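User: I'll paste a sequence; please echo it back and then give the predicted structure.

Assistant: Echoing your sequence first, then the prediction.
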Amino acid sequence: MLPMAEPVKRPYRSPARAAAAAVTRERIREAASRLFTTQGFAATTMKQVAADAGVGERTLYDAFPTKAKLFGHTLAVATVGDEQPIRVAERPEITAAHEAADPREAISLFVAYSSALLDRAGDLIMVSVEAAGADPDMRTAADAGSRAHHEVMLAFAQALDARGSLRTGLDTVIAADILYALSSPHMHQLLRRHRGWSAERYRTWLTEALVRELLAST
């Protein structure tokens, strides 16, 4: 006869402790984002982040063993807007854009989400791009981000094409490349940060540009 299995003891998770840990992570992310975007990746130290966040260095290193992991976490949360493990491609706003019957509405929904994403995360994305030449971890992060960005654009182009909305002669790969370029963090940085465009002006321009470049005339 087989012995009866011991009951599995589940670790106790205190809601209050989990909430406090979430608040601490948020403070760390806010401090890291400020320092990375104002000083750059190389010049920012873990000691500075800990001091700015008001936490001990041990606490910071327990949560994020390396500066690269801290940057990756900060960027990932800024990109999607929360700590839920749901990729951009699976977010309900992107799903709504894919499913919209009117292609102009689809582009408007897509731009609304992507522009809000870049307002949150665009500066950090550019930090990874600028540091990529000197830091292998940042090169990996920048390359992965670029691939993921293009995959989202390609899926949206394919959704438009499936509805017969792309203009004549435009295949989905070129359509994705147009989306990739016009909605890139580089373009966002130029217009929103360097030229001081408002969020509304940027969204309006990008929506109209994509409608002109992608959609069949009616």
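Residues 1-8 have pLDDT under 50 and may be disordered. The CA atoms of residues 35 and 44 lie 6 Å apart.
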